[in-house]
Amino acid sequence: MKALIIGAAGFVGGHLINHLSGDCGYEVYVTKLPSEKLETEKASVYDLDILDYDAVAGLLEKIQPDQIYHLAAQSSVKISWEKPQLTADINIKGTINVLEAVRSTGKSPKILLVGSGEEYGWLRPEEIPVKEETIFRPGNIYAATKACQGMLGEIYSGAYGMDIVMVRAFNHIGPGQSEIFVIADFCRQAVMIEKGISEPVITVGNLAAERDFTDVRDIVRAYSSLMTSGKSGQTYNVGSGTARSIQSMLDLILSKISVKTEVRQDEARMRPSDIPAIAADISRIKNDTGWKPVISLEDTIDDIMNYWRKRV
Ligand code: A2R
Q1: Residue nearest to atom 16 of ligand 1 (CA)
Q2: Per the CB 3.0–4.6 Å rule, which of 30, 80, 117, 298 could disulfide with 142?
Q3: Which helix (H) or strand (E) holds 115?
Q4: Which range marks the domain in which residue 108 is found?
Q5: Contact at 8 Å (CB) between 174 and 215?
Q6: CA–CA separation, 278 and 280 (whole Å)
Q7: Which of 12, 218, 278 to mutate to test the pocket of ligand 1 (most atoms within 8 A of CB)?
Q8: In this structure, is residue 197 part of a structural domain?
Q9: Each residue of 217-255: pLDDT tens digit?
Q10: Distance 104 CA to ligand 1 centre (A)
């Protein structure tokens, strides 16, 4: 089985390479931006900017993959407010380039388009945990571009009979995530305090927001199981099924260090609009693939803390 991961130098990519090359035993090909660094003996690495259509088509012609995991994205909500045009280019136009390039090869690899739980946006309390058919009310630019990506997947699957599965992934966390994301940021700050590098003050944004957190290693298992058993043209939520407040995550993280720490709210960390609560209904993926998350939140936080302990 030849698997191609597009956008593999990011957070999920490294974990997906490990899973596909190790547990699955696949022949793994990956792409990164020319500006990124990705050194691995587990995969063949190619430079690719998905905004360059000819380059995408050329690479697909060369590799002829059986599976394509499309991870490449501008994946930060915060950056999507600052760079809306870039976010739309990469997440929408980039996805069209990938889908058109696949079409141009005349082959029918299975394609996974990775969207986001953020697409649902302003959920009403009675809609949580949210099912896949729930109406979208995206609350930020990143979410709107990912909703559009999912619609494109449905259209290409229906119109051209392409073998495409769409995912709405809820918040994933784990070792290797950039500190622009909240849990990585809190763990890094906590480790700085633990080591005495920072004063015992942790700066935070909105602690009331509730999110559905899943270990990235469970997430990548979900992706490969969808490539095996997911239905073509179908969209699947991938998450834990439980909403947890950012406050409760902070409490868990601070319980891992023995230093008494002051929590300070920082206006700069508040977003222009923040969805109050999000949690996934994961019945569809469970029914179709048998997947469920198995790594406990405690273990995930311990692993993230240890990741930062080695780095700060
Ligand atoms: O923005 P960078 O320099 O971090 O690079 C990201 C890369 N990327 C691109 N790849 C090819 N052509 C482009 N024009 C382009 N622009 C950005 O995609 C990064 O290395 C990768 C995405 O990885 P992360 O941002 O770390 O996302 P993560 O957490 O691995 O999530 C994977 C997927 C994304 O579609 C998310 O929106 C979704 O899961 O939640």
Answers
A1: 73
A2: 80
A3: strand 110-116
A4: 2-173+222-240+281-287
A5: yes
A6: 7
A7: 12
A8: no
A9: 999 999 999 999 999 999 999 999 999 999 999 999 999
A10: 24
State the pairing for strand pair 244-245/210-211.
antiparallel
| Dist CA 244 CA 273 (whole Å) | 19
Taking the C-alpha atoms of 54, 63, 223 and 111 in order, what is their torsion angle to the nearest 10 degrees?
50
What CA–CA distance (Å, rounded) separates 282 from 238? 6
33, 152, 172: residue to mutate for ligand 1 pocket, most atoms within 8 A of CB = 33
Q: Angle 188-294-230 (CA atoms, 0-180°, nearest 5)?
A: 110
Alpha carbon distances (Å) from 279 to 120, 208, 227, 248: 10, 14, 23, 15
Residue 214 carries which side chain, given as an amino acid letter? T
What the block records as the tokens of 157 is 């699957």
Question: Which pLDDT band holds residue 277 (cuts at 50, 70, 90)?
Answer: confident
Residue closest via CA to ligand 1's atom 24 equals 10
Q: What is the CATH number for 23?
A: 3.40.50.720
**Separation of alpha carbons 33 and 46, rounded Å:** 8
Asked, for residue 253, whether it belongs to a domain, the answer is no
| β-sheet bridge partners, residue 45 | 30
Helix ranges (H only) for 128-196 are 141-160, 182-194
Helices (H), the chain: 11-18, 53-63, 77-82, 84-88, 94-105, 141-160, 182-194, 216-229, 246-254, 283-289, 297-309
Nearest 5°: phi and psi at 13?
Answer: -50, -50
pTM above 0.85, yes or no: yes
Residue 50 near ligand 1, beta carbon < 6 Å = yes
Evaluate whether residue 8 is within a structural domain: yes
pLDDT, tens digit, 9 for 90 and up, residues 78-102:
899 999 999 999 999 999 999 999 9
Q: Is 142 close to ligand 1, i.e. is its CB under 6 Å away?
A: no
Angle at 270 between CA 117 and CA 207, to 5 degrees: 70
Q: Domain for residue 153, yes or no?
A: yes
According to the model, what pLDDT value does residue 278 have? 87
Q: Is the CB of 94 under 6 A from ligand 1?
A: yes
SS3 114: strand
